[in-house]
Design brief:
single chain, mainly alpha, two-stranded antiparallel sheet, three-stranded antiparallel β-sheet, 22 helices
């Protein structure tokens, strides 16, 4: 951020800085150079209808920052797509080769591990990105402090999970041990996220994204080899842990090669206290957000058993695989929001992010609603398809709703931690818990799916209502309408009595052509950004 943080009485305050004539921000006796210079559009200066000059935030043409953001989204998106597909292969292999019960154990361990990661994550990555974006010279010290805190919290959380497992006296010790190994692997992956945060603060995410992709592919190869060798759940768990362990080592070596080393000499009790000040709201929000994402699986395990968890995990994996788009968009736009958190700028980035989410998730939802059974049959087989189609239909809106809520939360947090983001997450969590407890005993996985989508809808609505002070009112109609109309037209081929492959191909042709035609009229900036992303000469000239 261009605004420095000041911690007073445990609450993070934001110092508002005035714009200096030379483009610097001046405040508190310090001058911090901004990285955003005004760029004149190739269409010339815009004017409002009354003839007065428009504000910089009102310009419609994409600037060089917009193009760089879009290119970052593409690079991160491609690597994440390939990485997620590799992990989908892991899940498909586990579902087909382990059986429903053991697959349920694997899915349950992943859910426990993901929920446990909220403690060592605790918003530290967001704080590092914010503070290092404002003061790049502090990145080495912040990275060291982050790694120290993460190591201690990972050890503490894993010890608590081991103690709880021992007290529960599991009947199958081998299965319990395999579950613990999977949990340990998920916790270990938080160290990779620490280095990715350092790269995000430097706005150099593309290379480390490729490294993360290589780690995912290696993990998938080892896990599938273990499954094909019939090593069972234990072999899968060991291979998953070994592949995950490559991630933090490779990320550390890459960050060092780029010139960033953790400054361990800067770590002290005082520096760790300063790192923790102001993180409690982000940390609580992270716990609540992860609880929303994983409580359905935990409730199913408690109330319905491992078999139901396994049947639910297959369609739920399609949600997990899709939401990487949300993280890609967030990693691309959040540093820009944090570097200039004025409401009209944050609103603009929010609208662009939601436009990307709508263009991806609305047609995805349409496919799952129209041909969900065929998709499950292709991926998992008849047993999962017959039992999971209704569950998948209720989960179909969840990726879009999750993405909107996730992006709005980031937008609210761009200017610093706020109770508004936490309020939205807590409200959705209360709805989630109440509906899960009331409905799962009677309706099983279908109830969990309905509750998931409903909870994210509540979160998005609450955040929009609480957001005007920091992000204004995002103008979503023009941004979302092309995807809505194009998806409606694409539903025709999907509902036709054709095999899945030609139906998907025809729907894709209809969607892309209709979306481009409608976006060209309603929101031409989306088309302009896509064009300029691949025109190197135009990008260099704009920069």
């Amino acid at each position: 951020m261009d605004q420095p943080f000041r911690d007073m009485a445990g609450v993070l305050h934001i110092e508002q800085l005035a714009r200096a004539p030379n483009g610097s921000r001046v405040g508190g006796g310090a001058v911090v150079k901004t990285r955003h210079r005004p760029v004149r559009s190739r269409f010339g200066r815009l004017h409002k209808p009354n003839g007065t000059a428009a504000e910089p935030g009102d310009r419609a043409e994409p600037t060089s920052g917009t193009v760089r953001t879009a290119r970052t989204i593409v690079v991160l998106g491609v690597t994440e797509v390939i990485g997620k597909l590799s992990m989908v292969l892991v899940v498909i292999g586990a579902a087909r080769l382990l059986g429903v019960a053991d697959f349920g154990v694997f899915a349950y361990a992943l859910a426990v591990g993901a929920l446990a990661t909220t403690v060592p994550l605790w918003g530290y990555d967001t704080i590092v990105v914010q503070r290092a974006s404002a003061a790049p010279e502090r990145l080495r010290a912040l990275l060291a402090e982050l790694l120290v805190m993460r190591t201690g919290l990972v050890a503490l959380v894993f010890a608590i999970i081991c103690g709880a497992l021992v007290l529960s006296r599991p009947s199958d010790s081998d299965t319990a041990l395999a579950g613990l190994i999977v949990v340990a692997a998920v916790l270990l992956d938080t160290f990779t996220e620490a280095y990715r945060s350092a790269a995000a603060a430097q706005q150099r995410q593309n290379t480390i994204a490729v490294v993360h992709l290589m780690q995912r592919l290696l993990t998938a190869a080892w896990v599938l080899t273990a499954l094909l060798l019939d090593t069972g759940l234990m072999g899968l768990a060991v291979a998953y842990f070994a592949g995950t362990a490559v991630g933090p080592v490779a990320a550390m070596l890459l960050i060092r090669r780029q010139g960033t080393r953790a400054d361990w000499s800067a770590v002290s009790v005082g520096s760790l206290v300063r790192l923790n000040r102001g993180t409690w709201m982000i940390g609580l929000e992270s716990i609540v957000a992860m609880a929303l994402f994983r409580l359905d699986t935990l409730f199913l395990g408690w109330l319905a058993g491992n078999r139901v968890v396994g049947l639910y995990a297959a369609p739920y994996r399609l949600l997990e695989t899709a939401v990487f788009v949300c993280w890609v968009v967030s990693r691309a736009v959040f540093p820009l929001m944090a570097s200039d958190p004025r409401p009209h700028r944050v609103r603009r980035h929010t609208e662009r992010g939601i436009g990307v989410l709508a263009a991806v998730f609305i047609p995805y939802m349409t496919v799952l609603l129209c041909r969900g059974h065929d998709v499950l049959l292709l991926l998992y087989g008849e047993q999962f398809a017959d039992a999971g189609t209704d569950t998948l239909r209720w989960l179909a809106p969840a990726p879009l709703l999750f993405g909107i809520a996730y992006l709005l939360s980031d937008a609210l947090t761009a200017a610093g931690p706020t109770l508004r983001a936490l309020t939205g997450a807590v409200t959705a969590l209360v709805v989630n818990v109440v509906l899960n407890l009331a409905l799962i005993p009677h309706y099983g996985g279908v109830a969990a799916a309905f509750t998931t989508s409903c909870s994210y809808a509540v979160a998005a609505v609450v955040l929009i209502l609480l957001g005007p002070a920091r992000i204004g009112r995002p103008r979503l109609t023009r941004t979302v309408l092309p995807a809505v109309v194009a998806s409606g037209l694409a539903a025709g081929p999907l509902l036709a009595p054709w095999p899945l492959a030609p139906a998907l191909l025809a729907a894709a042709v209809v969607y892309v052509s209709c979306w481009a035609a409608i976006a060209r009229r309603l929101d031409p900036e989306q088309i302009q950004v896509l064009r300029q992303m691949f025109r190197r000469r135009s990008v260099q000239k704009a920069q």
